[in-house]
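To: structure desk
From: M.T.
Subject: fold request, one chain
Message: Could you run this one when you get a chance? Sequence is below, nothing fancy, just the single chain.
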Amino acid sequence: MAAPIIDVRGLAAGYEGRPVLRDVDLRVEAGEFVGLVGPSGSGKTTLLRALMGMAHLYAGTVEVDGCAVHEGERPAVGYVPQVEAIDWNFPVTVEEVVLMGRATVSGRWPWPRAQDRKDAADLLERLGMAAYRARHIRALSGGQQQRVFLARALIRNPRLLILDEPTSGVDIKTRDDVLHLLAGLNAEGVTVLLSTHEINAVATHLPRVVCLRGEIIADGPPSTVFTPEILRRAFDGDMVVVHQDGVTLVADRPHREA
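Reply: Done. Structure tokens follow.
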């Protein structure tokens, strides 16, 4: 059996001595498309950061693409952080942001090769951002910024793509475009792991979801993970779950006054 591209065992991780995750086991095979869901503070971002060597690891092991991940050591994968976590005051253009992804591998920054620029241009064209190549990254909308940072991750030609809330703060059309783009990349062989708070977007697009609340509560297809019982454990609230035409949809239960 081939080794998984992500292998997490007995993980406890957090920040400044305070664990956010405890006893987490997660195995993701190459070629999978997986979503992490859970309430705010449940550990979604912490788990992704642990995979990237960006969180404190207190117990357990983390392996990515066959290599052990240690705190402060970033694996060679594509990573797209939350837009809110980016410092937009740095004076940089769209093209330069994308080329930074290649530079972290080659060490050629700030002298990219002609091939690097061509690869960046091709990615921006594919993502519908070619017209914004010379624009300052701060001047873009949230959805446009997400596409640029996705191009920055993809220029590394990664086998694994990790995204933290890639559809946060964008409109429905942009969200749909991003998720379909990720599905297309996954069909080409890229393993995709993303976090999201948008349950229905995940249920509609992803074949596997992992529900977190400090630990893994459930793991499987949306039809088995999104049940009233599991959602109550995760979100401390009653939710309505509807299965229709092969799609699982979740809604808040209406509050009715006596």
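Reply (cont.): Helices lie at 44-51, 94-106, 114-126, 142-154, 172-187, 199-205, 222-225, 228-235. Let me know if you need anything else for the meeting.
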